[in-house]
Design brief:
By secondary structure, the protein is α/β, with parallel strands linked by helices. It has twelve helices and twelve strands. It has helices at residues 34-49, 65-70, 73-76, 110-124, 143-155, 169-176, 196-203, 217-223, 249-265, 269-278, 293-300, 309-320, and strands at 3-5, 12-14, 16-19, 54-56, 85-90, 92-93, 105-106, 129-134, 159-165, 183-189, 227-231, 285-288. The longest helix has 17 residues, at 249-265. The radius of gyration is 20 Å and the shape is globular. 44% of the residues are buried. The structure holds NADP nicotinamide-adenine-dinucleotide phosphate. The site of NADP nicotinamide-adenine-dinucleotide phosphate has 24 residues, from strand 12.
Length: 325
């Protein structure tokens, strides 16, 4: 599988990464079952078999159980840790954390960031994280406090590199001022029917545009060598056969074009979706989240599929649901 350098780091990562969100089975406090661990191993193996070397997690996924389920792979393949990159995230506090019946919220405080990283290391049964992301922007963020947490995690060898997720250009610029480590990734939702990342640039200076107000985040990330990671790259199955109640017209039309292209090229529909993301010159990394080994292999076919400019635009316009200005 083709690799690329992640942001300004020295990490050589596959362009298609594996998203481990559902591996823990359920978002509750029920104990992790052996069956869930077996299913997790099956999905991770399917990604490894395709050559994927990068795995995405978060402290909250299945309330920590996805990280615990992931760690079951070390017993199966003992020499694996040094051959792959592990990324996890912190910053979202689920209801009841830290106090029973507390509200959910975001938290970029020193104590929380450090505690979360240490919890993830424990659950993942590893000594270091290759990459640690701030999950969603915290309106109460104090960049100096984040800098202090990143320094301690970096100096202790617990975290190699840092990034963010769901952040705008202005939020990254504000956050990174006091940081001693570079921000190397920004993970955002991006797929054929979720194109806000591109829309502001397309709609600028139009009458009554539905501005996404992302402040040129794509251009900012390219300029500052921050790799965009696309979550939701399979459009959650909506374009590849998952039953959707009352699908919007753009979803139906895009799904039909995806199917037609896939058939004419002799590839899977998932490959067309992911190839559309990889075709962008920003070198976006796609974080695929299906647990199904067949769909994992289908999505990874994108590594060998290059769409033409014309094909890319045909899909883009169908996904947007309206012509370009
Ligand atoms: N940073 C963030 O805020 C954020 C948010 C969400 C996710 N993420 C990360 O990104 C990864 C991928 O995101 P995602 O899971 O939201 O998006 P995705 O990869 O677009 O969608 C995967 C989901 O769609 C289902 N699916 C795909 N094709 C299907 C089909 N043909 N029929 C039925 N179901 C189908 C999968 O179910 P099956 O497993 O049954 O195939 C799975 O639940 C996650 O694992 C996580 O690592 C990050």
């Amino acid at each position: 599988m083709l690799t690329q350098t992640l942001g300004s780091s020295d990490l050589q990562v596959t362009r298609i990464a594996y998203g481990c969100m559902p591996l823990g089975g359920s978002w509750d406090n029920a104990p992790l079952s052996d069956q869930t661990k077996i299913s997790a191993i099956r999905s991770i193996r399917a990604a490894l078999d395709q050559g994927v070397n990068f795995f995405d997690l978060a402290d909250i996924y299945c309330r920590g159980k996805s990280e615990s389920a992931f760690s079951a792979i070390w017993q199966e393949i003992p020499a694996l840790r040094e051959k792959i990159y592990l990324q996890t995230k912190c910053g979202i506090r689920l209801p009841d954390d830290p106090n029973a019946s507390g509200p959910d919220g975001y938290d970029f405080s020193y104590e929380y960031i450090v505690r979360s990283a240490e919890g993830s290391l424990k659950r993942l049964k590893t000594d270091y994280l290759d990459l640690f992301l701030l999950h969603r922007p915290d309106p109460l963020v104090e960049p100096d406090e984040v800098a202090h947490a990143f320094d301690d995690l970096h100096q202790s060898g617990k975290v190699r590199w840092f990034g963010v997720s769901n952040h705008t250009a202005a939020q990254i610029e504000f956050l990174r001022q006091p940081l001693r480590q570079p921000i190397i990734t920004n993970q955002v939702a991006f797929n054929l029917i979720h194109t806000h990342l591109l829309n502001e640039g397309i709609l600028f200076n139009q009458d009554n545009p539905l501005l996404a107000r992302d402040e040129g985040t794509l251009e900012y990330c390219r300029l500052h060598n921050i790799t965009i990671q696309a979550w939701g790259p399979l459009a959650w199955g909506q374009l590849t056969g998952r039953e959707v109640e009352n699908p919007a017209a753009n979803v139906l039309k895009t799904a039909a074009i995806v199917e037609e292209m896939a058939r004419s090229k002799g590839v899977s529909r998932e490959a067309v979706l992911v190839a559309w993301i990889l075709r962008h010159p920003a070198k976006i990394q796609a974080i695929i989240g299906t647990t199904d080994p067949v769909r994992i292999a289908a999505a990874c076919q994108a590594d060998e599929l290059e769409l033409t400019r014309q094909e890319w635009y045909r899909l883009f316009i169908a996904g947007r649901g309206e012509e370009l200005p």
